[in-house]
Amino acid sequence: MTTINLFGKTLKNPVIAASGTFGFGREYQKYMDLSALGGISSKGLTWDKRAGNSGQRIFETASGMMNSIGLQNPSVLGFIKEELPFMLGLDTYILANLGGSTTEDYVRGVAELDATAVDAIELNISCPNVKEGGMAFGIRCLDAKSIVEAVRPFTTKPLIVKLSPNAEDIKAMAYTCAQAGADGLSLVNTFNALAIDIMTRKPVFHNVTAGLSGPCIKPIALRMVRDVALTVDIPIIGLGGITCWQDVIEFIMAGSTAIQVGTANFYDPVVMKKIILGIENFMQKEGIKDLEEIRGIIR
């Protein structure tokens, strides 16, 4: 039985489409039945509409990918009006991923999303804190604490905080967010990385650095998930370089309740369908009746 319980709701399986890699689902519906997924995390939303970064946005690396999209999105209100009705028509768990540059952005966004029928809010704290000179909210524990505490009173929905692997101390960050009111955590987001064009003698991206994802980060993401699972007692959604069902089983054994698939969707639009089938076959072969039997067994 591949079903899992997440914040009191039953998901068909632990496979969730990661934010920023699946849009709002429309582009993928011609490749697979979206209702077969455990859930979908929306593209990252901000209070104001964003056109995204200029210049090159995607760059392939050895065993991975770098991106500098810049949170291109229709805004929170644009999402609620234009995209959410479609997503709510899908028979799957819907997470609204929310970013922001100021505390006020986060509070307004959470309040609006709370009034909708989304199942949960995923708070992306890897966004730059404008008032702190551009340092992400998810780097220092005190900044993360202030954001989670600020938005917590404005929603009764499950609040999932998406952690940055660039945090000063991932275990301390996880503990801080849990104490501040997070119902769950998702980790990890992309790693800050650099690519250089040796012919132009300039960085590939206009923003100089960009987010690294894909198989190359999986071992580190897996270690961080285990570290966090041993630190907090709230659900963890693990992600980072997942490309096959074996990866999913590893993340569950490390302590994840659910997982998210991101970069792999770009080169194989039906990869999650394959992953779900692989999990089912593995459980049947190994006589595993419930994924809880193997969750967190790596101590």
Secondary structure layout:
Blueprint: E1 4-6, E2 9-11, E3 15-17, E4 39-41, E5 58-61, E6 64-67, H1 76-82, H2 84-88, E7 93-98, H3 103-114, E8 120-124, H4 141-151, E9 159-162, H5 170-180, E10 184-187, E11 191-194, E12 196-197, E13 202-203, E14 209-213, H6 218-229, E15 236-239, H7 245-253, E16 258-261, H8 264-267, H9 271-286
Parallel strand pairs: 3-4, 3-16, 4-7, 7-8, 8-9, 9-10, 10-15, 15-16
Antiparallel strand pairs: 1-2, 5-6, 6-14, 11-14, 12-13
What fraction of the residues are assigned to beta strands by DSSP? 15-25%
> What is the approximate shape?
globular
**CATH homologous superfamily label:** Aldolase class I
Q: What is the element string, with H for helices and E for strands?
A: EEEEEEHHEHEHEHEEEEEHEHEHH
Total separate domains: 1
Q: Give the low-pLDDT segments.
A: none
Structural class: alpha/beta
The count of helical stretches stands at 9
Main pleated sheet: 8 strands, parallel, barrel
Please name the CATH topology. Answer: TIM Barrel
CATH architecture: Alpha-Beta Barrel
CATH C-level name: Alpha Beta
Q: What's the Cα radius of gyration?
A: 18 Å
Strand order of the largest sheet: 3-4-7-8-9-10-15-16
How many beta-strand segments? Answer: 16
CA distance, first residue to last residue: 24 Å
**Helical residue percent band:** 25-40%
> Average pLDDT value?
95
